[in-house]
């Protein structure tokens, strides 16, 4: 059985209100456009999640909303807010969907992406995982609790700049 992971870092957030707590920061104009573009890209590819695991932050929630995807199950959790690569893997290991969209933050997302794949894509920005970067990867495993480091096969990788320019 093949499992699919859509790994997305939140889109570009606004720093317009310096008094706003980090967890409450919304997306800026570019971030809104990026999230919408990535959602369209996923739909065109026919890669749609049936489960979403996301940080509870405002910017990850808004990224998911702007992507305009629907999933059978959506979970927003503090456990993915600035999570380490190992914390992200722990959360993913509890997933139940066939295709999971996981939304989070750097530096954990970049570290996770680099460690979960068998081989990185030939893309300069994969290693720093900029805002709204998205990787589609598959795993030859029957359940997510059998997924471990260096087991994902990259199917595609995109940064919003490639979709918006």
Automatic annotation (TrEMBL):
InterPro entries: His_Pase_superF_clade-1 (IPR013078), His_PPase_superfam (IPR029033). This is 2,3-bisphosphoglycerate-dependent phosphoglycerate mutase. PANTHER family: OS09G0287300 PROTEIN. Gene3D superfamilies: Phosphoglycerate mutase-like (3.40.50.1240). It holds the Pfam family His_Phos_1.
């Amino acid at each position: 059985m093949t499992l699919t992971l859509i790994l997305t870092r939140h889109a570009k957030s606004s720093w317009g209100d310096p008094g706003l707590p980090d967890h409450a920061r919304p997306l800026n104009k570019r971030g809104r456009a990026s999230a919408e573009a990535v959602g369209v890209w996923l739909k065109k590819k026919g890669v749609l999640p049936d489960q979403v695991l996301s940080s509870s932050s405002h910017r990850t929630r808004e990224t998911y909303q702007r992507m305009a995807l629907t999933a059978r199950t959506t979970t927003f959790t503090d456990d993915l807010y600035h999570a380490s690569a190992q914390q992200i893997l722990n959360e993913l290991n509890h997933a139940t969907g066939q295709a999971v969209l996981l939304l989070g933050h750097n530096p954990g997302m970049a570290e996770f992406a680099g460690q979960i794949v068998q081989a990185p894509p030939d893309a300069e920005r994969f290693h720093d995982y900029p805002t709204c970067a998205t990787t589609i990867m598959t795993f030859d495993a029957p359940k997510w609790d059998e997924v471990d480091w260096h087991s994902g096969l990259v199917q595609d990788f995109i940064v919003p700049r490639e979709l918006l320019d």
